[in-house]
Amino acid sequence: MAGFTTKEAGDEGERRALDHLVRHGLRLVARNYRVAAGPRRHGGEVDLIVRDRDGTLVFVEVRMRRNPRHGGAAASIGASKQRRVRLAARHYLQSFATPPPCRFDVVVIDGGALTWLQAAFTDE
Questions:
Q1: What's the pLDDT tens digit per position in 73-122?
Q2: Which InterPro entries match (predicted)?
């Protein structure tokens, strides 16, 4: 991804992740869903919200690293990042009278290799 800004590289990673998920039968519902948490608090964001074939709503975090020097892309999804994704997911689900089954997936791209981690974390 040489020559890309961080934003452009992130957008490209999300595009690759979405293409991969769509090839596996998931449908895009929303992209970059953001919610504010309040003054001096980090809000939340979900990179991709997709629906699986069985109706499960899937909140997807996409992480990309050019090299594994700092532990790789999966290692960058710590407890605080998971909290922010859960915050946005809970906010999104408020629009449903009866929320559908949900899960939290992660798509990591290390170098050029893409890995889809289904049910990578839970809504604790």
A1: 666 677 888 899 999 999 999 999 999 999 999 999 888 889 999 999 88
A2: Restrct_endonuc-II-like, tRNA_endonuc-like_dom_sf, UPF0102_YraN-like
Return the CATH number at 30.
3.40.1350.10
76 contacts: CB under 8 Å, gap ≥ 6: 63, 65, 70
Alpha helices in the chain (DSSP H): 6-23, 79-93
Q: What are phi and psi of 95, to 5 degrees?
A: -80, -5
- Residue 1 domain-assigned (yes or no): no
Number of domains in the chain: 1
